[in-house]
Amino acid sequence: MKISADFTVVPDDFAKAAPPEYRNGGIPVVSFPFYIDAIDPDAAYMHWAFTDPDSIPVCGFEWIHWTVANLPIDALMYDFNDSHALAIPPDFSRQMPSMIPEAVQGRNSSASKLLGRPADPAVTMRYNGPQPPDKDHDYYLHVWATKRPLAGLNQGFWLNEMLHVLRECGETPDQGGIFVTGRA
Predict the structure, then answer these.
(1) Rounded CA gap, 136 and 122, in Å?
(2) Which SUPFAM superfamilies match (predicted)?
(3) How far apart are CA 90 and CA 184, in angstroms?
(4) Structural contact between residues 27 and 110, judged by C-beta atoms closer than 8 angstroms
(5) Domain encompassing residue 10
């Protein structure tokens, strides 16, 4: 599997410099577009995590920005005239619940009890764009594809739950990833 994007630095609309209409409670909530190519032809479901390993020295843990599980590949449009097999469009995180209700999104780090923020699911269980406080950070988008949906994951799952289910799903998931930079 190959993951790609039309950028190496997350564009302003999806990150720290997002305009007010792309924010919820000051947090960027419009997800960025990306592409998934060379997927195992037997795969039927996609899952991903977008995280910030560079946040560890800042807050003590890897910040989770977005997690998705059990997205049926057939629910996405293949454009055989396009150069990419699958395109995840901009703002997919906010559109997905009404477009593909069987897919689920997990909690991001904004849901942490340590932050004491209000538990607004539109913020805590969707995409949160990069907002590095100290310097540019490298973010990692990791995508997995499986033949069957991951059992037991519901809206608001935690990343560790998805990783446990992936490890014990009875198959070796197809996978790929990409690093992108978020500007401070």
Answers:
(1) 26
(2) PEBP-like
(3) 22
(4) yes
(5) 2-182
Q: Which two tokens stand for residue 69?
A: 């599980």
Average pLDDT over the chain reads: 94
Within the chain, where are the H helices? 56-59, 92-99, 121-124, 159-167
What is the per-residue pLDDT for 158? 97
Helix or strand (DSSP H, E) at 94 = helix 92-99
61-89 pLDDT, tens digit per residue, is 999 999 999 999 999 876 666 667 799 99
Phi-psi region of 68 (alpha: psi -120 to 50; beta: other; left: phi over 0): beta
**CATH of residue 119:** 3.90.280.10
Compute CA distances 15 → 65, 67, 103, 164, whole Å: 11, 16, 24, 29
Q: What's the farthest any 2 CA atoms get from each other in the chain? A: 48
CA distance 124 to 33: 20
Cβ contacts of 63 within 8 Å, gap of 6 or more: 51, 52, 55, 108, 109
Report pLDDT digits (tens) over 113-164.
887 777 899 999 999 999 999 999 999 999 999 999 999 999 999 999 999 9
181 and 136 in contact (C-beta within 8 Å)?
A: yes
- What is the reported pTM? 0.95
